[in-house]
Design a protein that fits this description.
There is one protein chain. This protein is α+β, with helices and mostly antiparallel strands and about 180 residues long. The protein has helices at about 20-35, 40-50, 55-60, 115-130, 145-150, and strands spanning about 10-15, 65-75, 75-85, 100-105, 135-140, 155-165, 165-175. The protein has a single domain (about 10-175), classed as Aminopeptidase (3-Layer(aba) Sandwich), CATH 3.40.630. Helix 1 packs across helix 3 (about 55-60). It is globular, with a radius of gyration of 16 Å. The relative contact order is 0.16. InterPro entries: Acyl_CoA_acyltransferase (IPR016181), Bact_Acetyltransf (IPR050832), GNAT_dom (IPR000182).
Length: about 180
């Protein structure tokens, strides 16, 4: 189903365990759409089905050291942001809140959903730590995401790698500037 994306009415709320199946499906869809550009092989299938599980999302929704926010349009989940608190990153020593994931379903990219989720993530970080600083990793080839984070004030602070099977994928470490 395609929607007109002029200006959707986006609401953001904390996720609940009842959102777990929907979040797992959304995460798999977004991850495969972003990274399985040559198709899906066994390694990718196993990765997404073992990583983006309903049990994992139910756990993150209830975890005291995490914050999981969902974006809704017309009652449907269209994106989410997952924060991990007390997550030190040597390449961003001034903040210890990781934005582990910010996913937006493809039809809703460039519609403001990601900006709303990022703003809510920073607000949740501030409420928890007294500081809205975040760090994250993003695949260096995901130019759209890199540009989005730069537009919102995050800067590259270093490089790390995401390992999947025998392959290593370069990821930028990005962070909000120190206060």
């Amino acid at each position: 189903m395609r929607r007109s994306m002029t200006s959707p009415l986006v609401t953001v709320r904390p996720a609940t365990a009842a959102d777990a199946h929907t979040l797992a499906a959304l995460a798999i869809q977004v991850w495969l759409d972003t990274y399985a550009t040559d198709g899906v092989n066994d390694l990718l299938g196993r990765y997404v089905l073992s990583t983006f599980t309903p049990a994992a999302f139910a756990g993150w929704a209830e975890a005291p050291d995490a914050a999981l926010r969902v974006a809704q349009v017309d009652g449907h989940l269209v994106g989410y942001a997952l924060l991990q608190f007390n997550a030190a990153q040597p390449l961003a020593p001034h903040c210890d809140t990781e934005l582990r994931t910010l996913y937006v379903q493809s039809p809703f990219t460039r519609s403001g959903v990601g900006s709303v989720l990022l703003r809510e993530a920073r607000s949740a970080a501030h409420a928890r730590t007294g500081n809205d600083g975040l760090w994250l990793t993003v695949n260096v080839k995901n130019q759209r995401a890199c540009a989005f984070y730069e537009k919102h004030g995050l800067a590259v602070t270093g490089l790390t790698q995401f390992v999947l099977g025998e392959e290593r994928h370069d990821n930028h470490v990005m962070a909000t500037p120190p206060n």
